[in-house]
Amino acid sequence: FDTIAEYKEDLKKKLTENKEEALKREREEAVIGKIIENAQMDIPEQMVDAQTRQMTQEFAQRLSSQGLSIDQYMQFTGLTPQKMIEELKPQALKRIQSRLVLEAVVAAENIETTEEELDKEIENMASMYQMEVDKLKEVIGEEEKKQISLDLAVQKAVEIVTEAAVEK
């Protein structure tokens, strides 16, 4: 930045964007939470266990990227593996319920991802992984492309249900 004023303006813009994004996420979570409340689902315990394990692995990877092991984290916090799993189970169940509800919206509304949207997402991923787009396309198989397309369709479903929601 050339001036303090430019720095302050940029900082103000970023803070505003972060606040708007946080409010958007809060609204989405509230709307999806309300849909889940009214949905009838039988989630097998094995599915919850698998999701809990995946969330534990994701958390361990985030810790590792910050230079901390899961064992060190548990030492610092006093958590045991069993207690951590028990704390993650409700989040895992909610994640599964959210995904199932949103996939049902995708199916009911015939939401599809265009080839352009898929290409744009792959370009974003290539940028994030600092890879060439063509190289990433070679690495990504058809199943992964289907999963990315479904993820994009689910995001569209989130937008649809959030926009359609009426506050009472």
Q: Which class do the helix and strand fractions yield?
A: mainly alpha
Contiguous low-pLDDT stretches (5 residues minimum) are none
Give the strand content.
under 5%
Q: Characterize the main sheet.
A: none
Helices, by number, come to 7
Radius of gyration: 20 Å
Span of the ends, CA to CA: 45 Å
Overall spatial form = globular
User: Helix-strand pattern, N to C?
Assistant: HHHHHHH
Q: Average pLDDT, to the nearest integer?
A: 91
Share of helix, binned = over 70%
How many strand elements?
0
Observed structural traits:
168 residues; mainly alpha; globular
In brief, what are we looking at here?
With 168 residues, this protein is an all-alpha fold.
Model description:
With 168 residues, this protein is mainly alpha-helical. 81% of the residues lie in helices and 0% in strands. It is built from 7 helices and no strands. α4 packs across α7. The termini are far apart. The model has no long low-confidence stretch (mean pLDDT 91).
Strand and helix map with partners:
Blueprint: H1 4-38, H2 45-65, H3 70-77, H4 81-108, H5 115-128, H6 133-139, H7 142-164
